[in-house]
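Anyone up for a design puzzle?
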């Protein structure tokens, strides 16, 4: 029978509690905790290896996709999103699904932002630049399925034509 990650988590919690009791200063070096966990739970860790790898990879995917950089949506040599900073590279569009932010529809972007409005002030503040970008591009929507990139292309084309007429 496969080891449940919840059971493994409980075992790790017990080891950490023991380490806290052993240390008077309350500080537990991570290397010490890892060594004890590996020593005492080696069999369970081996049995749960695939689950642990998946869990770690999911966390890494989440970390990478939340970084504030956009894909290279280009028109010629110009980045459509170069002047937008602080925007996540990917957004969650459903349970276990992420989408390149530039390929997200406005409905997906609005849903993502709405879900984060319930978060604390720091989270909402971090997403202000994304919200601002979505609002700047909103006037360039032509169809419900338009992506942020579609709107950014239209905005860029309009600004380019306007600049050439000056």
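Challenge accepted. My sequence:
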């Amino acid at each position: 029978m496969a080891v449940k990650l919840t059971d493994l988590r409980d075992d790790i919690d017990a080891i950490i509690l023991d380490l806290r009791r052993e240390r008077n200063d309350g500080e537990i070096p991570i290397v010490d905790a890892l060594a004890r966990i590996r020593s005492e739970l080696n069999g369970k860790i081996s049995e749960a290896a695939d689950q642990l790898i998946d869990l770690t990879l999911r966390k890494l995917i989440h970390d990478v996709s939340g970084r504030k950089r956009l894909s290279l949506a280009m028109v010629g040599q110009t980045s459509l999103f170069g002047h937008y900073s602080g925007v996540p590279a990917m957004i969650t569009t459903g349970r276990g699904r992420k989408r390149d932010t530039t390929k997200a529809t406005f409905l997906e972007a609005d849903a993502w932002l709405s879900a984060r409005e319930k978060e604390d002030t720091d989270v909402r503040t971090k997403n202000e630049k994304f919200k601002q970008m979505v609002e700047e591009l909103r006037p360039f929507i032509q169809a419900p399925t338009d992506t942020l990139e579609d709107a950014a292309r239209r905005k860029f084309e309009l600004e380019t034509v306007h600049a050439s007429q000056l």
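A detail worth pointing out: The first strand starts at residue 74 and ends at 75.
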